[in-house]
Specification:
59% of the residues lie in helices and 0% in strands. With 127 residues, it is mainly alpha-helical. The chain has one domain. Helix 1 packs across helix 3, helix 3 runs parallel beside helix 5 and helix 4 packs antiparallel against helix 5. The longest helix has 22 residues. The protein is globular. It starts with a helix and ends in a 20-residue tail after the last helix.
Length: 127
């Protein structure tokens, strides 16, 4: 994945654009592992390519992270009608990966993306 495509994926998610990871969570109540992987890999692409950090991009990543947390809370709230399908059993791993991706971007640290540090393993989309 190139840097421009990565930035577009991050932007699309922050805007809840159709066919984005966060759109599926918000509009379809569906956790798409494929779109999650694409979103996570887009952040990793920026970190690995040492793209110039941008407060705007950091805010977009933060916004998506907060939305994911909110939808997970809604999902587990017995008084809320929001029920997400496709949620991984290792949903804590999803939160952890998003948190570390944000920190990796914020701190320009590839170490925070190492598969070795995560309990939740995944197949990485080729970038």
């Amino acid at each position: 994945m190139d840097v421009l495509k990565a930035k577009q994926i991050i932007f699309n998610n922050s805007q809840i654009s159709e066919n984005s990871f966060i759109y599926n969570l918000h509009e379809k109540c569906l956790f798409s592992e494929e779109l999650f992987g694409e979103y996570y890999d887009s952040i990793a692409t920026l970190v690995r390519n040492r793209d110039t950090k941008s407060l705007e991009v950091e805010n977009q990543i933060t916004d998506v992270y907060l939305k994911v947390l909110k939808y997970l809370v809604f999902h587990f709230d017995p008084d809320d009608n929001y029920i997400m399908s496709g949620i991984p059993k290792e949903y804590i791993g999803v939160i952890e990966r998003l948190e570390y991706a944000l920190l990796a971007y914020r701190n320009s640290s590839e170490k925070l993306l190492s598969e070795d540090i995560f309990e939740m393993k995944r197949k990485r989309v080729e970038t």
